[in-house]
Amino acid sequence: MDRLIKAYGFDKMARIYVADTTDLVQHAKDIHDLWPTASAALGRFLTASVIMGAMYKGAFGRDDANLTLRVASDGPIEGMVATTNTHGEVRGYVGNPHVFLQYDSGKLNVGKAVGAGQLHITKDLKVRDIFTSSVSLLSGEIGEDFAYYFKSSEQIPSVVSLGVKVDEHNNIIGAGGVILQMLPGFKSDHLDAVEDAFKKLPHISFMLEAGDQPEDILAKLTDDTELLESMPLKFQCDCNREKFERGLISLGKDELRTMIKEDGQIETVCHFCMTKYTFDSIDIESLIKESQS
Ligand SMILES: [Zn+2]
């Protein structure tokens, strides 16, 4: 089962998040028919997103924050979108799921699949205005793009390590990530120790493939830790028929009747979870009637 742990480490000068997202990335692969490089790109993106959502648990004494994260880029995956909350729930999709690009070494070439562009993060913390901050992508490899976001947009020195391993049947055999953020008051010695520890840490997807739990990965990073919390993670969409009804009504009755006349029914698909909602002429007429009353 997918899980996230939060801990202090390095003399309590760093907050560390370790996530196993293997199951939720496999779910995304299944519903979106992702090819390997698209799996790696979206898997890394979902992992960073769900960890970031969990960072706002309890912020301002609330638990109802939500985040929308977008990669707008010019590579063949045609961008990505994810939304997440503070409860370990995340959903997302790529523009084009059928991307399989490798380096000569055989490693999946996520940077090329993503391309150049921007990372936009919109936070609704439910305490003040919703705000969006954006940074240019450094490499499109996602991990360093998030590290750059934390540094430039939030002024928090961070290390972000993300990984997705795909087997020869396109299944996800290890997906997860570690995000470490320095806390106020840290000294350069702490930062040196952190960088040293990450250099020695085996790749995250290999540790997960080998069966390591988040606690095992944390212990491999440092033995100076204090565990704060463990929470389950999952791919979860909150769409429903009513949301699509509201979208249809906004098209206006003439447009709806034209669509029904042409196709006999209107089919809408949720981009996030691929659930289909179908409306026949009776549904549409009652929607029009409702919207007029
Ligand atoms: Zn949905």
Task: Walk me through what this model shows.
This protein has 293 residues and is an alpha+beta fold. It has 2 domains: 3-235, 3-Layer(bab) Sandwich (Hsp33 domain); 241-292, Alpha-Beta Complex (CBS domain Like). It is 37% helix and 30% strand. It contains 10 helices and 13 strands. The protein has helices at residues 22-32, 36-55, 110-114, 143-154, 188-200, 204-209, 214-221, 241-249, 253-263, 281-292; strands at residues 3-9, 14-20, 66-73, 80-85, 89-94, 117-124, 131-136, 158-166, 172-182, 225-232, 234-235, 265-269, 276-280. A 6-stranded mixed beta sheet has the order 7-6-3-4-5-11, covered by helices on one side. A hairpin with a 4-residue loop joins strand 1 and strand 2 (14-20). The longest helix is centred in the first third of the chain and has 20 residues, at 36-55. The radius of gyration is 21 Å and the shape is globular. Residues 237, 239, 270, 272-273, 275 line the site of zinc ion.
